[in-house]
Amino acid sequence: MMEFRNTDPTDEPEALGAGVVKRSTRLADGRELIYFDDPDTTLGPDRGIDARDLDPRPATATMRRDVLTGDWISVAAARQNRAFLPPAELDPLAPQTPTNPSEIPSTYDVAVFENRSPSFGPALSEPYDSTESAIDAPQGLDDLDAPGLGRTRTSVGRCEVVCFSPERTGSFGTLSPTRARTVIEAWADRTAALSALPGVEQVFPFENRGEAIGVTLAHPHGQIYSYPYITPRTTTLLASIEREGDDLFERILQFERASDRVILQGEYWTAFVPFAARWPLEVHLVPHRHVADLAETTDAERDELAPLYLRLLRGVDAIYDSPTPYIAAWHQAPVNRGRDTVRLHLQLTSPRRAADKLKFLAGSEAAMGAWIGDVPPEASAALLRDAITRTPEVTL
């Protein structure tokens, strides 16, 4: 692999929506690093150079096809070496200091960078630098669906880390409304950029929160995965839309808004506990008009989303006396299929079924995919509504 040494601090800044400014640069091993500055940032325009002496990036992982399900499994052995609950003074997502050679050379508002040990990438369907040898990338979706035992492909794509704040602890829900709006702008920008990469079929922003979920870093952050295939969850969704009709999401929204499972409503978004919720705590947040992904949302929709989403997350934390673990998953339409029918939506799930109890996936759920709900969705919705009333209003 070609050696890389960053000598140019940043590219020309780019103005985004809501007054957010984007600044792109490179880390010492060639990975992309992007700063997203708040509209009221106190930071200057200069950014430091990453002067670390880093090992070359690991080889791109290989996918194996499970012939029984048709699913592709990425075998990314380099992930075994990723950071695991490091001490606060060695936080790899905090700005670099003389004693902490972290991933980000300068202080920042929001920062996004390529994962050092990704599940997908760094290779794309086309070699990502002139010295990379030919790769066995998927040759389109039909190639991925072809039958046969022992089929493999290169796990092309990209995985990025989204640092919500330079603070060492917290989550999306602890951000200020302005900072939350900057993160949303970053998600939209990265969704558009990653969707344009060769071989990427779906882009997935998400946040894992809490050690009970498996989080290995306390720093407030999320991730974005760019897959070389359409994920199993979305494949099932596409089949459901074919069965139920192209207007499925609009009908779901009207059905849920007429129920007693609504949690929060705005001009552009509604949050509700779904009719057939699987998890003890599960909330869907859906835009009122059809948009395929975050990149298609308007400034007005993003402006409302920031405080509404913060209110929802703070309500989830207000249910009990300690923070609630969750997965916040932004489901977006595939890059090349279902753009007119698959609507952007958030699915927030938590295994917490009581103050001191978690739901674990046992035989029926884990082995057979046959779910048994512990809490009626209407009771969960009432619990969440009550918790939200105990949280202050949030405005941008």
Report on this model:
This protein is of the alpha+beta class. The protein folds into 2 domains: 14-229, HIT-like (HIT family, subunit A); 233-389, HIT family, subunit A, CATH 3.30.428. 22% of the residues lie in helices and 21% in strands. It has 7 helices and 17 strands. The strands form 3 sheets. Strands 1-2-3-6-8-10-9-14-15-13-12-11 form a 12-stranded antiparallel sheet. α2 crosses α5 and α5 (299-318) crosses α7 (377-389). The model is unreliable at 1-5 (pLDDT under 50).
Concise structural overview:
With 396 residues, this protein is an alpha+beta fold. 22% of the residues lie in helices and 21% in strands.
What order do the helices and strands come in, and which of them pair?
Blueprint: E1 14-15, E2 21-26, E3 32-37, E4 62-65, E5 72-75, E6 110-114, H1 141-145, E7 152-154, E8 158-163, H2 177-195, E9 202-209, E10 221-227, H3 232-244, H4 248-257, E11 262-265, E12 269-272, E13 281-287, H5 299-318, E14 326-331, E15 345-350, E16 352-354, E17 357-358, H6 363-368, H7 377-389
Antiparallel strand pairs: 1-2, 2-3, 3-6, 4-5, 4-7, 6-8, 8-10, 9-10, 9-14, 11-12, 12-13, 13-15, 14-15, 16-17
Helix pairs in contact: 2-5, 5-7
The amount of beta strand, in percent, is 15-25%
Number of domains: 2
Low-confidence stretches: 1-5
What is the H-and-E element order?
EEEEEEHEEHEEHHEEEHEEEEHH
Global structural class: alpha+beta
Number of strands: 17
Estimate the global geometry from the Cα principal axes: globular
Q: Give me the number of helical elements.
A: 7
Helix content range? 10-25%
CATH C-level category of the largest domain = Alpha Beta
Q: What gyration radius follows from the Cα positions, in whole Å?
A: 21 Å
CATH-derived architecture of the largest domain: 2-Layer Sandwich
